[in-house]
């Protein structure tokens, strides 16, 4: 009996392979759980009740108010500059009421009053020039041409986004890689068990032939 039990014991290499498989399975499950609670669920809620529409520019204007931004000029060098507030008002194909356009969800959360946040430079004048350039772009380049925008009636009914931060590709990768990790772990465990089972059977058949 002792000999029979010893035959089914895993070698050191097989034991490491099993541990790796179980580690990948656990990592895949924990990743799915963590991403689902911390990132995927809020992203889906953000997308819920939303959709796309055609937008047309109604007005482009700069407010007199200026907002602060933080610039970095090195590892231990940081400071605060200011930029003017640009507002792009649009009309969507879903509603006749004007809506405020934003670059994406991140920009909307950072500064919901403005349509554009320039890359923060140390010089306030440079920030103003970047905002003015963007203002000319919307006035002269886009003008009255319709373009695709995104909205969420439940979260921000008076705002629309030029692009989504959480698009289908990001959500796919968020779900895909933990599942792939889990499946690779399962595959390693199954192959190790099958290889061991085949080795034990081959050893048993070999012993029978010698009897």
UniProtKB/TrEMBL annotation:
InterPro entries listed in its UniProt record: K_chnl_Ca-activ_BK_bsu
Membrane topology category: Multi-pass membrane protein
GO molecular function: calcium-activated potassium channel activity; potassium channel regulator activity
One GO CC annotation: voltage-gated potassium channel complex
Superkingdom as given in the UniProt entry: Eukaryota
Keyword annotations of the record: Glycoprotein, Ion channel, Ion transport, Membrane, Transmembrane, Transmembrane helix, Transport
Localisation per UniProt entry: Membrane
Regions crossing the membrane: 20-40, 170-193
Example GO BP: detection of calcium ion
PANTHER family (alphabetical): CALCIUM-ACTIVATED POTASSIUM CHANNEL SUBUNIT BETA, CALCIUM-ACTIVATED POTASSIUM CHANNEL SUBUNIT BETA-4
Protein name: KCMB4 protein
Organism taxonomic ancestry: Eukaryota, Metazoa, Chordata, Craniata, Vertebrata
Gene name tied to this protein: Kcnmb4
């Amino acid at each position: 009996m002792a000999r029979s039990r010893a035959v089914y014991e895993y070698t050191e290499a097989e034991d490491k392979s099993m541990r790796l498989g179980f580690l990948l399975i656990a990592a895949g499950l924990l990743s799915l759980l963590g991403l689902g609670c911390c990132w995927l669920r809020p992203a889906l809620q953000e997308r819920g009740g939303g959709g796309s529409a055609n937008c047309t520019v109604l007005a482009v204007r700069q407010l007199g108010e200026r907002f602060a931004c933080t610039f970095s000029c090195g590892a231990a060098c940081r400071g605060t500059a200011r930029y003017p507030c640009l507002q792009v008002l649009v009309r969507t194909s879903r509603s006749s009421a004007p809506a405020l356009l934003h670059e994406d969800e991140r920009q909307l959360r950072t500064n919901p009053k403005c349509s554009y946040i320039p890359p923060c430079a140390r010089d306030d004048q440079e920030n103003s020039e970047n905002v003015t350039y963007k203002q000319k772009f919307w006035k002269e380049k886009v003008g009255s041409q319709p373009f695709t925008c995104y909205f969420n009636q439940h979260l921000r009914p008076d705002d629309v986004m030029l692009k989504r931060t959480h698009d289908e590709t990001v959500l796919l990768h968020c779900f895909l890689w933990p599942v792939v990790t889990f499946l690779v772990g399962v595959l390693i465990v199954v192959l190790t068990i099958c290889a061991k089972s085949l080795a034990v059977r081959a050893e048993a058949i070999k012993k029978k032939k010698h009897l």
